[in-house]
Amino acid sequence: MEILWVLIALVMLGFVLLPFLRRGRGAIGLVSPDHPDAADPANYGFVREEELDIRMPGPDQDLLDVLDVVQRTQDYRAAQQLLAGTEKEGERRWQRVQAFAGAASLELAQRPGGVSEAPGGQWLRVWRAEAPKDAGGAAVHAEFLVQQAWRTATPGTDEFRIIMEEAKAACGEAALLAPGDPIPYIVELSVARGLGYSQKDFEQLWLKILDRAPNHMGAHLAALHYWCEKWHGSRELAYSFAEAAAARAPQGSLLAAMPLFAVFEHLPEVTLVSGFWQTEVVTKAVHGALHAVHSARPDDPMLAHVRHMLVFFLVRGERWAEAMNQLVRVDGHVGALPWTLSADPAAEFAVYRALAVAGFEANGGNPASLPH
Q1: Are the CB atoms for 58 and 96 separated by under 8 Å?
Q2: What is the pLDDT of residues 238-282, one digit of tens each?
Q3: Low-confidence winner among 195-209, 261-275, 280-294 (lowest mean pLDDT)
Q4: Degrees to nearest 5, angle at CA 130 with 129 and 136
Q5: Cα separations (Å) of 260 from 74, 179, 239, 246, 290?
Q6: What is the DSSP string of 71-121?
Q7: How far apart are CA 257 and CA 246, in angstroms?
């Protein structure tokens, strides 16, 4: 019986991979990197897999410089100054809060501490102790607790609930320190998902964010998770939320790409229909996202997030040239969906990049024909 299940699994896997591994005309073959027919991503100036930065979706040199100083010296003050100088309502501050919290959480995981060693992330504890009224430190601490809950505990367990309740209280403290700041409420969106807020309570939380930052893309992505079928909503509710956000998006806003993220959150685990990636719902969402990136400001901090998601869908849809146009703009950083869902984000990204290069060249493309 076990052999039968293995055979069934192999057949299903073959259906999934076959569209990538074999094509009639313009065939794409996956061969070893040293094969003479292998397409080489390096020809396009792409970064080697081992050098891909998995921390962020796109470049933020100020953040990288500060993170280096903080982690090297264990002095929080550079992080405090950077957040204090970052626009409260903007996307970049939310990304930086996440990055500082994630750095502290990963440090703690790597160095839990002991009798003769201080635990990792000590700089965040010192920050809260020495500057308890600092809104930036309070927001980072709240996000740190949220990340700790998801990283170290299992949803539904007492341990998870205890950490999330602590995070909820930390969100309240952060909100009191900065009444007009949307960040504490955006952090609480993850708490709401983890603790299972009622839809009425979630909507009240969401209204607080809309009052402060109605077009915040990061907040919308965080809220979308709550409305998804796998959490506290449904496919219909998630699509409705995403489409409503896209419909009211002002000119140049990346909210027009929200339906693509809703589609991603509800992808079937196994796709046996070869034309799934060309269906109306997928095609419409991809076109909306492409329009959004074309009209967005080049310095929009959320632009890389949308481009990474487009790479995933365009490769799956065999739209090789369009995938390459996105890749040349995001290559080097892979700290975004869908790659971060993998245990090895860089490797996952590299596979899709190789497929895009192979498909592009199989259809007559080359480095000289790719616009930069």
Answers
A1: no
A2: 999 999 999 999 999 999 999 999 999 999 876 656 688 888 999
A3: 261-275
A4: 85
A5: 40, 32, 9, 10, 10
A6: HHH--THHHHHHHHTS-TTSHHHHHHHHHHHHHHHHHHHH----SSSPPTT
A7: 7
Task: Note whether 311 and 326 are within 8 A (CB).
Answer: yes
Radius of gyration of the chain (CA): 22
Tell me the one-letter amino acid at 368.
A
Decide: 228 and 265 in contact? Cβ < 8 Å: yes
Q: Which of 127, 152, 138, 242 is nearest to 185 (CA)?
A: 138
Other CB atoms closer than 10 Å to residue 145's CB: what's the count?
23
Distance CA 257, CA 238 (A): 13
pLDDT in tens, 324-362: 999 999 999 999 999 999 999 999 999 999 999 999 999
Instruction: Compute how many other C-beta atoms are within 10 angstroms of the C-beta atom of residue 285.
Output: 25
Q: Is the peptide bond before 338 cis (omega within 30 degrees of 0)?
A: yes
Q: Give the containing element (helix H, strand E) for 324.
A: helix 320-330
Which whole number is the average pLDDT over 125-131?
96
Distance of alpha carbon 63 from alpha carbon 82, whole angstroms? 8
CA 10 from chain centre, in angstroms, equals 30
d(CA 158, CA 144): 18
Please classify residue 196 by burial: count the beta carbons closer than 10 Å to its beta carbon, then call 0-12 exposed, 13-18 middle and 19+ buried. Answer: middle
Distances (CA, A) of 268 to 90, 211, 271, 354: 34, 35, 6, 24
